[in-house]
Amino acid sequence: MATQTTASCTGSTLLQPLSDIINLPLDQVNFVACQVFALLMAVWFRIYLHPSKTSPFIRHVVATLLGFYLALFCFGWYSLHFLMQSGLSYGVMVFSGLEHMHKYCFIVTMGYLILCQITRVYVFDYGMYSADFTGPMMVITQKITSMVFEIHDGLTKRESQLTPSQKYLAIRRMPSLLEYLSYNCNFMGILAGPTCSYNDYTAFIEGTCYQPRHQENANGKENGKHQQIEPSPKNAVISKLCTCAISLAIYLSLCRVLPVEYTTNDDFVNSTPLHLQVVYLYLSMLALRPKYYFVWTLADAINNAAGFGFSGYNKDGSPQWDLISNVRILGIELATSFKMFIDNWNIQTALWLKRVCYERCPINPTAATFLLSAMWHGVYPGYYLTFLTGTTMTMAARAIRHNIRPYFLVSDSYKLIYDVITWIGTQIAISYTVVPFVLLAVGPSLKFYTSWYFCLHIVCLLVVLALPVKSRRRQEGLHDNQTEHNSTDNNCNQKDKAT
């Protein structure tokens, strides 16, 4: 076990004894250790390199160097790919014209990521489903492509051509190489993100991110309390670390007891009634999700500990630290629609897909967004099966919501019945959809769907054909999406209002 673990890890072997003791792969041990180190460095960064004491130049340099150190510790020489991808894209930004810069950068950045994913999967280690060097590259890809579209918006478009959120996100000058590398490779987000906007990151570095979010009353107080110009993230960090501990404990306790792979076991399929197969599928996916909760919540806590992620104040005057949060656990577990689940899962990636693809693609933006998401995730065939299925599920869920939901809004009791039914349907549909995402290969994925007789695929196709969404409805749906997008980005727009 130790030999295989060491061979599969390209980073430091300093923690190999610990890996042997706890019986976890060394690359995963390195990842968690680096994130804990980053958390400690974030506290130090906020206290000793505060913007009031240190220039933005020094903060950029330290954040970048610490990020490179963590990358080297985790991934060894493979971390050079981070520099190669960033360097190539920056060269395109500098030497190509502003009119087409965003397109060329998008192609180069995505192309380099896909090339690395193909090499890792089909040349080195197919099926290694653990920490790998393409994970940070996926986040860097999001940052680079977001940045180039925001530069294009800021330097080539008029104000009237931009949405309110695009106006805030637009970058009005070309970033320097140091600012660019700091944004892409800082120690707070180099390993697990999350993605953030360039303007929010530079505001954090320069110390201008703490702004009052509400109007003062006649007594010079905000919501009955004195304004706190720079709130403390201590409570938010402690709360998120507790969530991390609970999530990790649940995952380690259940992941081996309820493996998703068991859903394709011949004895299980042949001897287990269908309703029990449905229950097992839901429980196995429920046991798998805490791993992502742990990684994303820890990454969010690291950024908060450094002073990044403040989004404003609640009505009671308490600070909110969810500007770059990547997951809302209750929103996921209580989701009553496919869209609600997606909106609360990997939030920053969903925003990235919306900003660079959904809002800009002139033809079938839903299918284009799912395709880009599949390409970004990797080259395993299971990803494409999942997102192909997800496209059908989304269309069917939209048709049901537009055509059937209004009949259940006549009373609270009917609405409750609708919510319960749609919660059950959503959890089953999500579990059914993401099985290939976990199994990765075509054979096991098709074996699973065959054991279910492709029933949900067929039901969704029938729903789409029987309950089509009219074009007017579709436009209303797009308007709702825009409203929700603006609501998500409201913490950005409030800065302008406060000013």
Q: Tell me the overall shape.
A: globular
Number of E-type strands: 2
Could you describe the largest sheet, including whether it forms a barrel? 2 strands, antiparallel
Low-confidence stretches: 1-7, 213-228, 471-499
GO molecular function, one term: acyltransferase activity
GO cellular component, one term: endoplasmic reticulum membrane
Protein name: Membrane bound O-acyltransferase domain containing 2a
Keywords: Acyltransferase, Endoplasmic reticulum, Membrane, Transferase, Transmembrane, Transmembrane helix
Question: What would you note in describing this structure?
Answer:
- It is a multi-pass membrane protein.
- GO terms for molecular function: acyltransferase activity.
- Pfam families: MBOAT.
- This is Membrane bound O-acyltransferase domain containing 2a.
- Keywords: Acyltransferase, Endoplasmic reticulum, Membrane, Transferase, Transmembrane, Transmembrane helix.
- The chain has about 500 residues and is mainly α.
- It has 3 domains: about 20-205, no CATH class; about 235-320; about 330-490, no CATH class.
- Helix content is about 70%, strand content about 0%.
- It has helices spanning about 1-10, 15-20, 25-50, 55-75, 80-95, 100-125, 135-155, 165-170, 175-185, 200-205, 235-255, 265-270, 275-305, 330-335, 340-345, 345-360, 365-375, 380-405, 410-440, 440-450, 455-465, 470-490, 490-499, and strands spanning about 310-315, 320.
- The chain has a two-stranded antiparallel sheet with strand order 1-2.
- Strand 1 (about 310-315) and strand 2 form a beta hairpin.
- Helix 6 (about 100-125) packs antiparallel against helix 7.
- The longest helix has about 30 residues, at about 275-305.
- The radius of gyration is 23 Å and the shape is globular.
- It starts with a helix and ends with a helix.
- Mean pLDDT is about 85; it is low at about 1-5, about 215-230 and about 470-499.
